[in-house]
Design a protein that fits this description.
Elements lengths: L3 E6 L5 H14 L4 E8 L13 E7 L8 H15 L3 E5 L2 H14 L3 E5 L1 E4 L5 E7 L4 E5 L7 E5 L8 E5 L4 H14 L3 E4 L1 H5 L20 E5 L5 H7 L4 E5 L13 E3 L3 H17 L4
Parallel strand pairs: 1-2, 1-4, 2-3, 4-9, 5-9, 10-11, 10-12, 12-13, 13-14
Antiparallel strand pairs: 6-7, 7-8
Helix pairs in contact: 2-3, 4-7
The protein binds flavin-adenine dinucleotide.
Flavin-adenine dinucleotide (FAD) binds next to helix 5 and helix 6.
């Protein structure tokens, strides 16, 4: 019998990004019945080409513009009970994670968060692979009780050669400068979880165990202490440049270049040098 997969696109994810997940599932289980369920606030036409074999179903309900997790979860629950899937996958966006957790509690389904990989065996068991203990171990998890196997999957962040990341120590002023620096260097902005929690950067920028994994050629860490959960997402970077006022900060143990100075001030000086060099035609 075919496995019935529901691959769900939360409202906070663009469809063209989501398509990568359906392609991944299709590649691993081409014979199975896959249905991508797009959660939207209004009826929309689907004009992005999905991989062959994937059926797309639009589940529209005005609650999907509310960003209210329990309303969105309840609307989706009805759909799930009708479809009776074997596997439910969500991309690990902020809303994807929250809706999945809400459904897990509500429907009594197990949930594995932040998969980095998965495969289906011949008995219809989904092997869910994720990092554990600060990315020092790879765990393989199977759902023993219940038929529905549910997980959230980490989506790879758009590749970038340079990531300019800030932590709590960068502050609001520092983050404005880091954003400009990332743009001028042609890189991406990153952030620690503490910075995201403090509202200094959006969740999509979070690097680490519960955010994105990145491995750019150069990773700038401004005002980031270097907690194990942050290191898990960036320690594979080519070169690490750390800026911190505390000379004993753990991040310095992993850095190729260490700058013991104020984060915002360092970013300001780097921007000024970069702009001068550009004006002189040096880069
Ligand atoms: C289950 C779990 C999952 C987690 N997942 C993640 C994750 O995905 N990503 C993540 O980042 N964290 C994650 N965390 C949180 C993690 O443990 C740390 O709390 C977090 O990384 C700390 O962020 P931070 O370095 O910005 O803040 P802090 O630890 O508060 O460090 C701030 C740093 O800034 C420095 N500083 C202060 N002022 C300045 C200044 N003016 N200029 C320069 N430096 C300055 C300080 O010396 C300090 O080193 C997770 C935690 C748990 C329990």
């Amino acid at each position: 019998m075919k496995t019935r997969w529901l691959i769900i696109k939360p409202p906070d994810m663009q469809e063209k990004v989501f398509i990568g997940l359906s392609a991944r599932v299709c590649g691993k289980s081409p014979e199975d019945a896959q249905i991508c369920v797009l959660l939207t606030g209004k009826k929309e036409k689907v004009d992005i080409p999905y991989p062959e074999g994937v059926r797309v179903s639009v589940h529209s309900d005005p609650v999907f513009t509310s960003h209210d997790i329990s309303l969105m979860g309840a609307s989706l629950e009805k759909r799930i009970r009708e479809r009776e899937p074997d596997v439910i996958l969500f991309p690990a966006t902020e809303e994807g994670k929250q809706i999945a957790a809400w459904l897990a509690g509500r429907m009594g389904i197990g949930l594995t968060a932040d998969l980095t990989d998965f495969y289906m065996d011949e008995n219809g068991i989904l092997h869910q692979i994720r990092m554990a203990y600060g990315a020092s171990l790879q765990a393989e998890i199977v759902t023993c009780a219940g038929r529905i196997q549910m997980a959230t999957i980490k989506m790879e962040r758009e590749k970038a050669d340079i990531v300019v990341a800030g932590g709590l120590g960068a502050g609001k002023e520092g983050f404005a400068l880091l954003e400009e620096l990332a743009r001028l260097l042609g890189g991406k902005l990153g952030a620690s979880r503490a910075a995201v929690d403090a509202g200094l950067a959006p969740f999509s920028c979070q690097i680490g165990q519960s955010g994105n994994y990145v491995n750019p050629k150069i990773y700038f860490a401004f005002g980031i202490s270097g907690a194990v959960q942050h290191l898990a997402g960036m320690k594979g970077s080519g070169k690490i440049v750390a800026v911190n006022t505390d000379e004993r900060a753990l991040i310095f143990d992993y850095a190729d270049y260490k700058i013991c100075h104020d984060a915002a001030d360092t970013a300001r000086m780097m921007l000024a040098c970069l702009k001068d060099a550009r004006a002189d035609g040096l880069c």
